[in-house]
Specification:
The chain is α/β, with parallel strands linked by helices. The chain has helices spanning about 35-40, 110-115, 130-135, 150-160, 170-175, 195-205, 235-255, 265-270, 295-305, 325-340, 365-375, 405-410, 420-430; strands spanning about 1-5, 20-25, 30, 45-50, 55-60, 70-75, 140-145, 180-185, 210-215, 260-265, 315-320, 345-350, 380-385, 415.
Amino acid sequence: MVKITGVEKHSPLKRKVKAGMQLVSVNGNEIHDFLDYNFYIAEEKLELVFKKENRFKTIRLKKQPYDDIGLEFENYIMDKERSCANQCIFCFIDQLPPGMRDTLYFKDDDARLSFLFGNYLTLTNISQREIDRIIKMHISPINVSVHTMNEQLRVEMMGNKRAGKVLSYLDDLKRGGIKMNAQLVLCPGINDGEELRYSLDKLEKYYPELQSVAVVPVGLTDYREGLYDLKPYTRESAENVLQIIDEYEQRFLEQYGTKLVFAADEFYLKAGRKIPDAAFYEDFEQLENGVGMWAMMKDEFIHALESVSPSNRSVTLTLAAGEAAAPLFQELVDLLHEKCYNISVNVVAVKNRFFGSKITVSGLLTGSDLLKAFEANPPEDTLLIPKAMLKNDENIFLDDITLEQLAQRLNTRVIPIANDGYELLEALLGESR
Protein backbone atom coordinates (compact mmCIF):
# COMPACT_ATOMS: atom_id res chain seq x y z
CA MET A 1 0.00 0.00 0.00
CA VAL A 2 1.14 3.56 -0.71
CA LYS A 3 -0.11 6.68 1.04
CA ILE A 4 -1.86 9.37 -1.04
CA THR A 5 -0.99 12.96 -0.18
CA GLY A 6 -3.25 14.69 -2.68
CA VAL A 7 -5.29 14.47 -5.88
CA GLU A 8 -4.73 16.69 -8.88
CA LYS A 9 -7.46 19.19 -9.77
CA HIS A 10 -8.47 17.55 -13.05
CA SER A 11 -8.15 13.94 -11.87
CA PRO A 12 -11.19 11.69 -12.50
CA LEU A 13 -10.76 10.65 -8.84
CA LYS A 14 -10.91 14.18 -7.44
CA ARG A 15 -14.24 13.77 -5.64
CA LYS A 16 -13.75 10.14 -4.67
CA VAL A 17 -10.26 10.01 -3.17
CA LYS A 18 -8.80 12.15 -0.39
CA ALA A 19 -5.35 12.77 1.02
CA GLY A 20 -4.51 10.27 3.74
CA MET A 21 -6.10 7.30 1.98
CA GLN A 22 -3.89 4.41 0.87
CA LEU A 23 -3.84 2.83 -2.57
CA VAL A 24 -3.93 -0.93 -1.94
CA SER A 25 -4.12 -2.46 -5.41
CA VAL A 26 -4.75 -1.87 -9.12
CA ASN A 27 -6.55 -4.61 -11.04
CA GLY A 28 -5.78 -7.03 -8.22
CA ASN A 29 -2.06 -6.22 -8.15
CA GLU A 30 -0.65 -4.91 -4.87
CA ILE A 31 1.01 -1.49 -5.07
CA HIS A 32 4.30 -1.08 -3.20
CA ASP A 33 5.99 1.77 -5.05
CA PHE A 34 6.08 3.85 -8.23
CA LEU A 35 7.09 0.88 -10.39
CA ASP A 36 3.94 -1.03 -9.52
CA TYR A 37 1.80 2.09 -9.80
CA ASN A 38 3.04 3.24 -13.23
CA PHE A 39 2.99 -0.25 -14.69
CA TYR A 40 -0.53 -1.20 -13.62
CA ILE A 41 -2.33 2.13 -14.18
CA ALA A 42 -1.31 2.02 -17.85
CA GLU A 43 -4.33 -0.18 -18.56
CA GLU A 44 -7.52 1.25 -20.08
CA LYS A 45 -9.85 -0.26 -17.45
CA LEU A 46 -8.86 0.01 -13.79
CA GLU A 47 -10.22 -1.44 -10.59
CA LEU A 48 -8.64 0.54 -7.76
CA VAL A 49 -8.85 -0.50 -4.12
CA PHE A 50 -8.27 2.19 -1.49
CA LYS A 51 -8.04 1.95 2.28
CA LYS A 52 -8.91 4.56 4.90
CA GLU A 53 -8.38 3.44 8.47
CA ASN A 54 -9.97 -0.06 8.43
CA ARG A 55 -12.40 0.50 5.58
CA PHE A 56 -11.82 -0.45 1.96
CA LYS A 57 -13.24 1.33 -1.09
CA THR A 58 -13.28 0.02 -4.66
CA ILE A 59 -13.45 2.42 -7.61
CA ARG A 60 -13.73 1.36 -11.25
CA LEU A 61 -12.39 3.70 -13.88
CA LYS A 62 -12.07 3.79 -17.67
CA LYS A 63 -9.49 6.04 -19.33
CA GLN A 64 -7.12 6.29 -22.27
CA PRO A 65 -4.26 3.75 -22.12
CA TYR A 66 -1.12 5.13 -20.38
CA ASP A 67 -2.94 8.26 -19.12
CA ASP A 68 -2.14 9.22 -15.53
CA ILE A 69 -4.96 9.25 -12.97
CA GLY A 70 -3.74 12.27 -11.01
CA LEU A 71 -2.84 10.82 -7.61
CA GLU A 72 -0.06 12.45 -5.60
CA PHE A 73 2.27 10.67 -3.19
CA GLU A 74 4.73 11.44 -0.42
CA ASN A 75 7.81 11.15 -2.66
CA TYR A 76 8.72 10.14 -6.18
CA ILE A 77 9.40 6.47 -5.35
CA MET A 78 6.32 6.20 -3.06
CA ASP A 79 8.48 4.39 -0.51
CA LYS A 80 11.61 4.80 1.58
CA GLU A 81 14.90 4.81 -0.33
CA ARG A 82 16.85 1.62 0.35
CA SER A 83 20.30 1.94 1.83
CA CYS A 84 23.26 -0.25 0.96
CA ALA A 85 23.76 -3.41 3.02
CA ASN A 86 27.40 -3.88 1.97
CA GLN A 87 30.71 -2.98 3.58
CA CYS A 88 32.82 -2.69 0.43
CA ILE A 89 36.56 -2.35 0.98
CA PHE A 90 36.65 0.35 -1.72
CA CYS A 91 33.51 2.31 -0.76
CA PHE A 92 34.04 5.99 -1.58
CA ILE A 93 31.47 7.19 0.94
CA ASP A 94 33.46 5.58 3.77
CA GLN A 95 36.34 7.83 2.70
CA LEU A 96 34.50 11.14 2.89
CA PRO A 97 35.85 13.77 5.28
CA PRO A 98 33.67 14.73 8.26
CA GLY A 99 31.38 17.76 8.24
CA MET A 100 29.78 17.36 4.81
CA ARG A 101 26.00 17.52 4.27
CA ASP A 102 24.14 14.48 5.57
CA THR A 103 22.80 13.36 2.20
CA LEU A 104 26.34 12.70 0.94
CA TYR A 105 26.85 10.00 3.55
CA PHE A 106 23.77 8.03 2.51
CA LYS A 107 24.65 4.85 0.62
CA ASP A 108 21.86 3.91 -1.76
CA ASP A 109 21.48 0.49 -3.36
CA ASP A 110 17.98 0.63 -4.77
CA ALA A 111 16.97 -1.16 -7.96
CA ARG A 112 14.25 1.42 -8.54
CA LEU A 113 16.87 4.18 -8.75
CA SER A 114 18.66 2.18 -11.42
CA PHE A 115 15.50 2.46 -13.49
CA LEU A 116 14.98 6.16 -12.72
CA PHE A 117 18.51 7.56 -12.77
CA GLY A 118 20.78 4.83 -14.09
CA ASN A 119 22.26 4.10 -10.65
CA TYR A 120 24.28 0.92 -10.28
CA LEU A 121 23.02 -1.78 -7.92
CA THR A 122 24.94 -4.62 -6.30
CA LEU A 123 22.02 -7.14 -6.25
CA THR A 124 22.62 -7.84 -2.53
CA ASN A 125 19.68 -5.65 -1.54
CA ILE A 126 17.11 -7.20 -3.82
CA SER A 127 14.85 -10.26 -3.55
CA GLN A 128 13.83 -12.91 -6.07
CA ARG A 129 10.34 -11.35 -6.09
CA GLU A 130 11.84 -8.06 -7.23
CA ILE A 131 13.93 -9.74 -9.91
CA ASP A 132 10.75 -11.41 -11.15
CA ARG A 133 9.00 -8.03 -11.13
CA ILE A 134 11.81 -6.45 -13.19
CA ILE A 135 11.38 -9.23 -15.75
CA LYS A 136 7.57 -9.03 -15.74
CA MET A 137 7.63 -5.26 -16.27
CA HIS A 138 10.62 -5.53 -18.62
CA ILE A 139 12.53 -2.78 -16.85
CA SER A 140 15.60 -2.46 -19.02
CA PRO A 141 18.50 -1.80 -18.97
CA ILE A 142 19.62 -2.62 -15.43
CA ASN A 143 23.05 -1.39 -14.30
CA VAL A 144 24.93 -3.83 -12.06
CA SER A 145 28.01 -3.27 -9.90
CA VAL A 146 29.66 -6.66 -10.42
CA HIS A 147 33.29 -5.94 -9.39
CA THR A 148 34.20 -9.62 -9.65
CA MET A 149 32.56 -12.84 -10.82
CA ASN A 150 34.54 -14.85 -8.25
CA GLU A 151 31.79 -15.50 -5.70
CA GLN A 152 34.06 -15.87 -2.66
CA LEU A 153 36.14 -12.83 -3.60
CA ARG A 154 32.95 -10.82 -4.09
CA VAL A 155 31.84 -11.72 -0.57
CA GLU A 156 35.22 -10.58 0.79
CA MET A 157 35.33 -7.36 -1.24
CA MET A 158 31.75 -6.36 -0.46
CA GLY A 159 31.53 -7.55 3.14
CA ASN A 160 28.19 -9.25 2.51
CA LYS A 161 27.62 -13.00 2.72
CA ARG A 162 24.94 -12.77 -0.04
CA ALA A 163 27.29 -11.05 -2.48
CA GLY A 164 28.39 -14.25 -4.21
CA LYS A 165 25.17 -16.18 -4.59
CA VAL A 166 23.14 -13.21 -5.87
CA LEU A 167 25.25 -13.25 -9.04
CA SER A 168 22.75 -15.94 -10.12
CA TYR A 169 20.28 -13.09 -10.64
CA LEU A 170 22.27 -12.23 -13.77
CA ASP A 171 21.11 -15.57 -15.22
CA ASP A 172 17.50 -14.72 -14.41
CA LEU A 173 17.81 -11.30 -16.03
CA LYS A 174 19.38 -12.78 -19.14
CA ARG A 175 16.63 -15.40 -19.45
CA GLY A 176 14.09 -12.61 -19.04
CA GLY A 177 15.62 -10.63 -21.91
CA ILE A 178 16.67 -7.75 -19.66
CA LYS A 179 19.51 -5.63 -21.02
CA MET A 180 22.36 -5.10 -18.57
CA ASN A 181 25.41 -2.89 -18.15
CA ALA A 182 28.10 -3.98 -15.70
CA GLN A 183 30.90 -2.19 -13.89
CA LEU A 184 34.05 -3.57 -12.31
CA VAL A 185 35.74 -1.26 -9.79
CA LEU A 186 39.30 -2.59 -9.74
CA CYS A 187 41.54 -2.61 -6.69
CA PRO A 188 45.25 -3.29 -7.39
CA GLY A 189 46.29 -6.84 -6.57
CA ILE A 190 42.75 -7.90 -5.58
CA ASN A 191 40.35 -8.17 -8.53
CA ASP A 192 42.62 -7.23 -11.42
CA GLY A 193 45.16 -9.45 -13.21
CA GLU A 194 43.97 -13.05 -13.47
CA GLU A 195 40.84 -12.22 -11.46
CA LEU A 196 39.92 -9.64 -14.10
CA ARG A 197 40.39 -12.26 -16.81
CA TYR A 198 38.17 -14.66 -14.83
CA SER A 199 35.43 -12.03 -14.49
CA LEU A 200 35.47 -11.13 -18.18
CA ASP A 201 35.38 -14.81 -19.17
CA LYS A 202 32.34 -15.36 -16.93
CA LEU A 203 30.56 -12.18 -18.07
CA GLU A 204 30.93 -13.12 -21.73
CA LYS A 205 28.09 -15.66 -21.46
CA TYR A 206 25.60 -12.87 -20.72
CA TYR A 207 26.08 -11.29 -24.15
CA PRO A 208 23.99 -10.01 -25.97
CA GLU A 209 21.78 -9.06 -23.01
CA LEU A 210 24.96 -7.71 -21.44
CA GLN A 211 25.52 -4.54 -23.45
CA SER A 212 28.75 -3.27 -21.92
CA VAL A 213 31.28 -3.65 -19.12
CA ALA A 214 33.06 -0.63 -17.63
CA VAL A 215 36.38 -1.19 -15.88
CA VAL A 216 37.07 1.62 -13.42
CA PRO A 217 40.03 2.22 -11.04
CA VAL A 218 39.31 2.51 -7.32
CA GLY A 219 39.18 6.10 -6.04
CA LEU A 220 41.14 6.75 -2.86
CA THR A 221 40.96 9.85 -0.67
CA ASP A 222 43.21 10.85 2.24
CA TYR A 223 40.50 9.77 4.71
CA ARG A 224 41.15 6.03 4.93
CA GLU A 225 42.20 5.62 8.54
CA GLY A 226 40.97 2.27 9.85
CA LEU A 227 39.88 1.14 6.37
CA TYR A 228 41.23 -1.69 4.20
CA ASP A 229 44.77 -1.04 3.01
CA LEU A 230 44.33 -0.21 -0.67
CA LYS A 231 46.94 1.24 -3.00
CA PRO A 232 46.29 3.53 -5.96
CA TYR A 233 47.05 2.46 -9.51
CA THR A 234 50.52 3.30 -10.79
CA ARG A 235 51.55 3.85 -14.39
CA GLU A 236 52.74 0.24 -14.60
CA SER A 237 49.73 -1.41 -12.93
CA ALA A 238 47.30 0.70 -14.98
CA GLU A 239 49.10 -0.37 -18.16
CA ASN A 240 48.78 -4.03 -17.10
CA VAL A 241 45.01 -3.59 -16.77
CA LEU A 242 44.78 -1.95 -20.19
CA GLN A 243 46.73 -4.77 -21.81
CA ILE A 244 44.18 -7.29 -20.52
CA ILE A 245 41.29 -5.12 -21.69
CA ASP A 246 42.94 -4.68 -25.10
CA GLU A 247 43.12 -8.46 -25.43
CA TYR A 248 39.46 -9.00 -24.55
CA GLU A 249 38.24 -6.10 -26.67
CA GLN A 250 39.94 -7.63 -29.70
CA ARG A 251 38.53 -11.07 -28.94
CA PHE A 252 34.98 -9.83 -28.40
CA LEU A 253 35.14 -7.62 -31.48
CA GLU A 254 36.16 -10.54 -33.68
CA GLN A 255 33.53 -12.85 -32.19
CA TYR A 256 30.56 -10.54 -31.58
CA GLY A 257 31.24 -7.35 -33.53
CA THR A 258 31.48 -5.29 -30.31
CA LYS A 259 34.33 -4.61 -27.88
CA LEU A 260 31.87 -5.09 -25.00
CA VAL A 261 34.44 -4.14 -22.32
CA PHE A 262 35.84 -0.62 -21.98
CA ALA A 263 38.30 1.01 -19.59
CA ALA A 264 37.53 4.30 -17.88
CA ASP A 265 39.40 7.33 -19.23
CA GLU A 266 41.28 7.46 -15.94
CA PHE A 267 43.09 4.21 -16.70
CA TYR A 268 44.50 5.69 -19.93
CA LEU A 269 45.62 8.81 -18.09
CA LYS A 270 47.26 6.83 -15.29
CA ALA A 271 49.04 4.62 -17.81
CA GLY A 272 50.22 7.63 -19.82
CA ARG A 273 48.37 6.39 -22.90
CA LYS A 274 46.49 8.51 -25.39
CA ILE A 275 42.72 8.22 -24.93
CA PRO A 276 41.15 6.54 -28.00
CA ASP A 277 39.05 8.50 -30.48
CA ALA A 278 35.25 8.68 -30.30
CA ALA A 279 34.66 5.88 -32.82
CA PHE A 280 36.40 3.46 -30.45
CA TYR A 281 33.59 3.73 -27.88
CA GLU A 282 30.78 2.51 -30.14
CA ASP A 283 27.49 3.66 -28.52
CA PHE A 284 29.05 5.29 -25.41
CA GLU A 285 27.05 3.01 -23.10
CA GLN A 286 29.16 3.87 -20.03
CA LEU A 287 29.61 7.65 -20.13
CA GLU A 288 28.44 8.04 -16.51
CA ASN A 289 31.30 5.75 -15.48
CA GLY A 290 33.84 8.06 -17.09
CA VAL A 291 34.23 5.80 -20.13
CA GLY A 292 34.72 7.79 -23.34
CA MET A 293 33.74 11.14 -21.83
CA TRP A 294 36.87 12.82 -23.07
CA ALA A 295 36.68 11.26 -26.54
CA MET A 296 33.10 12.47 -26.97
CA MET A 297 33.91 16.01 -25.86
CA LYS A 298 36.95 16.20 -28.12
CA ASP A 299 34.99 14.89 -31.10
CA GLU A 300 32.21 17.43 -30.51
CA PHE A 301 34.72 20.24 -30.06
CA ILE A 302 36.59 19.46 -33.29
CA HIS A 303 33.31 19.16 -35.20
CA ALA A 304 32.12 22.51 -33.84
CA LEU A 305 35.49 24.13 -34.57
CA GLU A 306 35.15 23.30 -38.27
CA SER A 307 32.44 25.95 -38.60
CA VAL A 308 34.53 28.66 -36.88
CA SER A 309 36.23 31.04 -39.28
CA PRO A 310 39.78 32.26 -38.55
CA SER A 311 39.47 35.37 -36.43
CA ASN A 312 41.51 37.93 -34.53
CA ARG A 313 38.77 38.47 -31.95
CA SER A 314 40.19 39.16 -28.50
CA VAL A 315 39.01 37.04 -25.55
CA THR A 316 40.78 36.30 -22.27
CA LEU A 317 39.59 33.45 -20.05
CA THR A 318 40.72 31.12 -17.29
CA LEU A 319 39.67 27.45 -17.34
CA ALA A 320 40.05 25.42 -14.16
CA ALA A 321 40.02 21.62 -14.17
CA GLY A 322 41.29 18.65 -12.20
CA GLU A 323 44.90 17.63 -12.63
CA ALA A 324 43.93 14.70 -14.86
CA ALA A 325 41.77 16.72 -17.28
CA ALA A 326 43.79 19.95 -17.47
CA PRO A 327 46.24 18.68 -20.16
CA LEU A 328 43.28 17.45 -22.20
CA PHE A 329 41.59 20.85 -22.06
CA GLN A 330 44.89 22.44 -23.03
CA GLU A 331 44.94 20.27 -26.15
CA LEU A 332 41.58 21.70 -27.25
CA VAL A 333 42.60 25.24 -26.39
CA ASP A 334 45.67 24.83 -28.62
CA LEU A 335 43.45 23.70 -31.50
CA LEU A 336 41.27 26.79 -31.05
CA HIS A 337 44.32 29.07 -30.91
CA GLU A 338 45.37 27.93 -34.37
CA LYS A 339 42.24 29.60 -35.77
CA CYS A 340 41.69 32.40 -33.26
CA TYR A 341 45.16 33.46 -32.18
CA ASN A 342 43.96 36.41 -30.02
CA ILE A 343 41.92 34.16 -27.75
CA SER A 344 43.94 33.67 -24.59
CA VAL A 345 42.93 30.83 -22.29
CA ASN A 346 44.86 30.07 -19.13
CA VAL A 347 44.24 26.40 -18.29
CA VAL A 348 44.85 25.78 -14.59
CA ALA A 349 45.25 22.30 -13.09
CA VAL A 350 43.65 22.55 -9.64
CA LYS A 351 45.03 20.33 -6.89
CA ASN A 352 42.42 18.51 -4.80
CA ARG A 353 43.15 19.44 -1.21
CA PHE A 354 39.66 18.60 0.05
CA PHE A 355 39.80 14.85 -0.67
CA GLY A 356 43.56 14.52 -1.16
CA SER A 357 46.16 14.56 -3.92
CA LYS A 358 45.31 11.03 -5.17
CA ILE A 359 41.97 12.41 -6.41
CA THR A 360 42.66 14.12 -9.74
CA VAL A 361 39.27 14.15 -11.52
CA SER A 362 37.46 17.45 -12.04
CA GLY A 363 34.12 16.20 -10.70
CA LEU A 364 35.48 15.88 -7.15
CA LEU A 365 36.97 19.36 -6.91
CA THR A 366 35.23 21.61 -4.40
CA GLY A 367 34.62 25.31 -3.94
CA SER A 368 37.37 25.43 -1.32
CA ASP A 369 39.84 23.84 -3.78
CA LEU A 370 39.07 26.58 -6.29
CA LEU A 371 39.38 29.26 -3.62
CA LYS A 372 42.80 27.95 -2.57
CA ALA A 373 43.88 27.89 -6.20
CA PHE A 374 42.71 31.40 -7.07
CA GLU A 375 41.96 33.51 -3.99
CA ALA A 376 45.48 34.94 -3.69
CA ASN A 377 45.54 35.64 -7.43
CA PRO A 378 41.94 35.84 -8.72
CA PRO A 379 41.37 35.64 -12.49
CA GLU A 380 40.84 39.11 -13.90
CA ASP A 381 38.59 37.56 -16.50
CA THR A 382 35.86 34.93 -16.66
CA LEU A 383 36.53 31.62 -14.90
CA LEU A 384 35.22 28.49 -16.63
CA ILE A 385 34.76 25.30 -14.59
CA PRO A 386 33.41 21.83 -15.48
CA LYS A 387 29.76 21.57 -14.46
CA ALA A 388 30.53 18.14 -12.98
CA MET A 389 31.90 19.95 -9.91
CA LEU A 390 28.37 21.02 -9.01
CA LYS A 391 25.32 19.17 -7.73
CA ASN A 392 23.07 17.98 -10.58
CA ASP A 393 20.08 20.11 -9.64
CA GLU A 394 21.74 22.95 -7.76
CA ASN A 395 24.76 25.25 -8.17
CA ILE A 396 26.51 24.00 -5.05
CA PHE A 397 29.86 22.23 -4.62
CA LEU A 398 30.45 19.11 -2.52
CA ASP A 399 31.69 21.27 0.37
CA ASP A 400 28.46 23.34 0.34
CA ILE A 401 30.06 26.45 -1.14
CA THR A 402 27.69 27.83 -3.76
CA LEU A 403 28.65 29.03 -7.23
CA GLU A 404 27.49 32.50 -6.25
CA GLN A 405 29.70 32.51 -3.12
CA LEU A 406 32.71 31.42 -5.17
CA ALA A 407 32.11 34.20 -7.69
CA GLN A 408 31.74 36.77 -4.90
CA ARG A 409 34.89 35.65 -3.10
CA LEU A 410 36.93 35.80 -6.30
CA ASN A 411 35.10 38.86 -7.63
CA THR A 412 35.01 36.98 -10.92
CA ARG A 413 32.32 35.74 -13.27
CA VAL A 414 32.22 31.92 -12.99
CA ILE A 415 30.58 29.85 -15.73
CA PRO A 416 30.03 26.09 -15.37
CA ILE A 417 30.46 24.14 -18.62
CA ALA A 418 28.81 20.78 -19.29
CA ASN A 419 30.77 17.84 -20.71
CA ASP A 420 29.86 19.05 -24.18
CA GLY A 421 32.36 20.10 -26.84
CA TYR A 422 29.93 22.51 -28.49
CA GLU A 423 29.23 24.29 -25.22
CA LEU A 424 32.94 24.40 -24.38
CA LEU A 425 33.81 26.03 -27.71
CA GLU A 426 31.03 28.57 -27.27
CA ALA A 427 32.40 29.47 -23.83
CA LEU A 428 35.99 29.75 -25.08
CA LEU A 429 34.83 32.09 -27.83
CA GLY A 430 33.32 34.30 -25.12
CA GLU A 431 29.76 33.63 -26.27
CA SER A 432 28.38 32.11 -23.03
CA ARG A 433 25.71 34.15 -21.33
